[in-house]
Amino acid sequence: MGAEIPPLLADPDYCVVSRRHDAVGSRGRWLLFASLVAVSFGFALVFAAFGAWMVLPYSALEMTVLFFAFRWFERHAQDWERLAICADRVIVERECAGVRTRAELNRYWTRVELEDATLDGSVRLALSFGGRRIPFGDELPAPERLIVAADLRRLLAH
After folding, report:
1. What is the pLDDT along the chain (158 residues), one digit of tens a residue?
2. Burial of residue 110 (number of CB atoms within 10 Å: 0-12, 13-18, 19+)
3. Which residue from 94, 106, 109, 157 has the least number of CB within 10 angstroms?
4. CB-based burial label for 117 (10 Å; 0-12, 13-18, 19+)
């Protein structure tokens, strides 16, 4: 289930994939949205029938905002990122909202950086190479991110 991740051209020495957990799925998400629309407009129609007609435009506004939130989740539900070490290259690939990017770094010049930047106190992982900083693993749980960082430091040591 989920977006297909293209295969690597070579067998990696190390590979880790980070992706969002989409427990509901696209169909379930839109069924939930439809049920929320039905309940909201149902209540709005009942209030309008009793003379509180101004509830209808607010219900429509609420459902419009909710639609854009659901659409954002739908666009990002299939996001993924992959970090692979193949021989002397570190390959970081990412697909975000259907846009795929790829960066290849020199294995021996790449540094692993951890920074305390999130509100929940967990660390962010990034790769640094030639003045460029590439974040990785934001969808990984914090303990797994630390394990990946330790693995990368060991594999990138020269």
Report:
1. 456 788 887 789 999 999 888 888 899 999 999 999 999 999 999 999 999 999 999 999 999 999 999 999 999 998 999 999 998 999 999 999 889 999 999 999 999 998 876 666 778 899 999 889 999 998 888 889 999 999 999 999 86
2. buried
3. 157
4. exposed
Dihedrals φ, ψ of 131, to 5°? 80, 0
Whether the Cβ atoms of residue 136 and residue 84 lie closer than 8 Å to each other: no
d(CA 137, CA 158): 23
CB burial of 6-27 (b: ≥16 within 10 Å; e: otherwise) equals eeeeeebeeebebbeebeeeee
